[in-house]
Amino acid sequence: MSGAAWLQLAVFLGVLFALAWPLARAIDAVMAGRFAFGQRLERPLWRIAGVRPEQESGWLRYTLGLLIFNGLGLLAVYALQRLQYVLPLNPQGFGAVTPDSAFNTAISFMTNTNWQGYGGESTMGYLVQMLGLTVQNFLSAATGIAVVVALVRGFSRHSAQSIGNVWVDLTRATLWVLLPLALGFAVFFVGQGVIQNLSAYVQASTLEGGTQTLAMGPVASQLAIKMLGTNGGGFFNANSAHPFENPTALANFVQMIAIFLIPATLCFVFGRMVGDRRQGLAVLAAMTVLFVAFVVAATAFEQQGNPVLAALGADQTASALQSGGNMEGKEVRFGIHASSLFAVVTTAASCGAVNAMHDSFTPLGGMVPLVQMQLGEVVFGGVGAGLYGMLVFAIMAVFVAGLMIGRTPAYLGKKIEAHEMKMVAIAILVTPLLVLAGTAIAVMTDAGRAGIQDPGAHGFAEVLYALTSAANNNGSAFAGLSANTPFYNVLLGLAMLFGRFGVIVPVLAMAGSLAAKQRAAATDGTLPTHGPLFVALLIGTVLLVGLLNYVPALALGPVAEHLTLWTR
Length: 568
What we know:
The protein is mainly α. It has a domain at about 280-565. The protein is built from 20 helices and 4 strands. A hairpin with a 5-residue loop joins strand 1 and strand 2.
């Protein structure tokens, strides 16, 4: 990478950690019930809802409440889309969304995926955007925070039969964490030029004498929470490449900070909750090392450019386009460095917002976002989901280490036994099963192949990317795939649903099991889980266990396409 790219990366990480450290103290206080002002305001809400905040529950009841809560959200978003034609705040008069697209979108926003098979500004009215999609951006992010807090309570408690009150956790995460942050970021984005209005679309005259429709709408409010909540669904089809949604270089930088802010903060919260801040720093270190490696790889691959175009010396236009690297599909105002960093950030987290066309990246440049998602998006990852995913790998790492030295594995004083390892196996294997089986179904059926526009390895990579993005709840796409069809809307919708809750349920089961265990005292043979050795072990486990399932599929897609280009 160039010096400018390294400087950009260093400033990004410096600002991120500087903001995350103090924010962790606030989130820890909020989720532990030490925020006195918030508790006073919560009391009337508990009375209205009939909730007793002091009454905690075991993992099964906690999980059931979470599933019911998210299920009601799914039904609400589906109904809003289907009834859109009779709802107010629809100045363009958009009709009802088709049943299969509404099904896909309702699951997408409920699961924190925000996969969009439609163009937001040409499909959804303002009420649906605000009351349906934006609200779910808050609630799906709150779900992730609630799950990871419940899991960490499992480590920090001993001989306990409860892991918390799901309604209290969801309320506090929404009211005192997500809402204030989203309000501050929304005001900042408006100041940068992001639009926020309820106006009808504007007809503008072009320089050529024609007319162009400029979409309006409440963009800044949705932009703030879609980034902070690692949701990613854009108001505009062009997402963060649209000048109304990402108007300046500073706005672009702050959007990347927003994506990583809460995932990084939760690592510090983890250390505080278990009473050893070194534990959170070790997890954060593993995430940071992987992230830096992926940024270096993506930037280097994009700077190489396309060898086919670069070799066309007679075509001066093609040669000039590739002389500084691969600028295809990228905004000139962001360039290769900012576009590559954004692509890595958004797929390291389960965000999916994009400021460049990932489908136009070089084969290996596009493989970097793909691989990050296939690791389970644990390199910072989604709000809550990244940390509980990484803790699953941490349990796997201490289990492997225990087998190597012949000792009972333990993490944070809790013995890792058969039940925990069964839950770990389910959590790790459910997404590869969904991705690989879904990809196989898509490429073997006529309905699946009908959506593939590009032949050969790249077309296969587009399908693989779509299923990877859906099952890992990311939402970005190799957009060359025509996915807004009944086949893909149903297939990807099911992948999103089981990819989300197929991990959450075993994680909460582990939380209940760990909370009931006694804390074992550390001995001379106990593996320290806060030093460089453990960080290296954790990184190795993530790469080996998380990636090996996908190697054959990657060889058929981006690797084959790369070899085809570079052997011509």
